[in-house]
Design brief:
Layout (H helix, E strand, L loop, with lengths): L1 H22 L5 H23 L3 H17 L13
């Protein structure tokens, strides 16, 4: 049950960040940070689906997260994206 609650929180965070990015008109540092946050949230949401044994949805979210990360100009500035 806690994993399902965490999923709801992550899904609402993803929707909120997507909404804010849709409203943003310029490519500022805040927009880049929002895109990075969205990639992280999708990664965490994918992990949630994976640990709930919903692998097909998890794979889709992992791919979306990777896609967003690879499109980010911040990928050229090496920093930890995920820690275990």
């Amino acid at each position: 049950k806690p994993k399902k609650e965490a999923r709801k929180i992550l899904e609402s965070a993803v929707k909120e960040v997507e909404r804010l990015l849709a409203e943003a008109s310029e490519d500022s540092d805040e927009v880049q940070q929002g895109r990075e946050a969205l990639a992280r949230f999708q990664l965490y949401l994918g992990k949630n689906f994976y640990f709930c044994e919903e692998v097909p949805q998890a794979e889709q979210l992992f791919i979306r997260s990777l896609e967003r990360y690879l499109q980010s100009p911040q990928r050229l500035d090496p920093q930890y994206f995920v820690t275990i």
